[in-house]
Amino acid sequence: MPLLEINDLNVRYGEIVALRGVSFNVEEGQVVTLLGANGAGKSTTLRAISGLAKPASGDILFDGKSIAGLGPEAIVRMGISHVPEGRRVFPGLTVKENIMLGGSNRKASKAELSGEADAMFDLFPDIRKFSGALGWTLSGGQLQMVAVARGLMAKPRLLLLDEPSLGLAPVIVQAVFRIITEIRLSTTVLLVEQNARMGLSVADQGYVLETGRIVLGGKPEDLWANEAIAAAYLGGHGKPAAGLAAH
Ligand SMILES: Nc1ncnc2c1ncn2[C@@H]1O[C@H](COP(=O)(O)OP(=O)(O)OP(=O)(O)O)[C@@H](O)[C@H]1O
Q1: Whose CA is closest to 173, among 207, 190, 196, 203?
Q2: DSSP label at residue 90
Q3: Which of 47, 162, 230, 233 pairs as cysteine with 240 (C-beta 3.0–4.6 A)?
Q4: Residue nearest (by alpha carbon) to ligand 1 atom 26
Q5: Is residue 140 part of a domain?
Q6: How many angstroms separate the alpha carbon of residue 90 from the centre of ligand 1?
Q7: Domain assignment present for 28
Q8: Domain total for the chain?
């Protein structure tokens, strides 16, 4: 049984149809990457899974149980943690306190959460020096690491990661993706990325969304071989980008 099963999912924002008949599975232990241009529906897919967007129809099964329409708190308690785009951190708290907040869904004591947050800095050494600081100024990459560390504090069975590379310099993107390769050793990951090269480099399976529909899916090596993946990024004109073709 897949850990996550999405069947014929439709999501609307008022008149706007954001997802049309989206179906795919995520097997336990896999990294699955959703690719697609701006507005294709990638974030909406994650929002529907984590309970932030209500499906108009279709179903979402997690570990065999329907979670479609449940609220975000119930869903996080079941073991799904969502790291949204935008890396929101709370400026009135230290970096460590920001990370500890991610564990507030669990029954763990403050001391346990504190110990686990300290251990997170082994995975994210770049932000260790900010651990206890107030009034910190973090770079985009460091904010992203705080957001991912916070998501991991929920000890999720499934981590939803929305565009972790957005706006980051290439060297920082590589650091973030190195962390994903470590996370995947213990956690199933559903990743949204516009950076196809990076997104597929860590994936077992990839899907391309276009205007709310899955137009292509498969193993990374098969997707690379298909010009449609380039087309998805070039507005559907089918001209392969040099970077993609060179893979
Ligand atoms: N809160 C909202 N209200 C109305 N329409 C929305 C809302 N959020 C998203 N949409 C619309 O739903 C569609 C899918 O958006 P979504 O954010 O899921 O795409 P995306 O692939 O994640 O793109 P991006 O990378 O820009 O976030 C788009 O047409 C978008 O304009």
Answers
A1: 196
A2: -
A3: 230
A4: 38
A5: no
A6: 24
A7: yes
A8: 1
